[in-house]
Amino acid sequence: MKFFLDTADLAEIEEAASWGALAGVTTNPSLYARIGGRLDDFHNHIKRICDIVGPDCPVSAESVAMTRDEIVADGCKLAEIAPNVVVKIPTMVEGLAATHTLAGRGIPVNMTLCFTVPQALLAARAGARYISPFVGRFDDISEDGLFQLEQVCSAIGNYDFTANTVNGEKIEIIAASIRSANHVTQAALMGADIATVPFGVLKKMVQHPLTERGLDAFLKDWEKVQNA
Ligand code: E4P
């Protein structure tokens, strides 16, 4: 499993990148608004993220256009920011049509706000490079987000979509709307290719009380060694 950071916060991205386990970044309009982002600085901000993570890490930038032609125009401009920009498009009819066009032009798409198997299958057929089933938002409405993710992983895994994607690349499933380290564990066990996680979850993924207790004991014992 690869890890993407789900944020628009440059300090978080820099810190996570320094840990050596960051494979990409996903942003969305809410995450950009949360850091006080301005419309006229959006493309520059995506460029800053691309510069931090480097050319091998895909950076998803979301289009908020609502018609296929506008999404395609938006997507082409986003793709010009850097070669590793992935255009994030919501799962809807206009989004599918735009994905089909962008994929045909060699521009990778991350199909977002995906909740069901039929949505994921349509995204795959349209040519999405990444599909982002949301886990936490299902949990928020008292449904089982992990079960839904498992269904998507299983259904997508049943078929070969390489003929639909840019350069015949394998579709990757991004477990999105991740709220806990256990979400990551379960997503990895069911074979999701990527988890996009908020920085708070990434930090929790490192921690375990037994690690802390063990470290504490080692440090205390080392003091004894130093004073012996
Ligand atoms: C996915 O790429 C989205 O940006 C994100 O995972 C949404 O998460 P949320 O439901 O916590 O807002």
TrEMBL record:
A Gene Ontology biological process term: carbohydrate metabolic process
Keyword Cytoplasm: yes
Compartments, record wording: Cytoplasm
Recorded GO CC terms: cytoplasm
GO MF annotation terms: aldehyde-lyase activity
RNA-binding among keywords: no
Keywords of this entry: Cytoplasm, Schiff base
Superkingdom per UniProt: Bacteria
Pfam families reported in the protein's UniProt record: TAL_FSA
Main location: cytoplasm
PANTHER family membership: FRUCTOSE-6-PHOSPHATE ALDOLASE 1-RELATED, TRANSALDOLASE
Name of this chain's protein: Fructose-6-phosphate aldolase
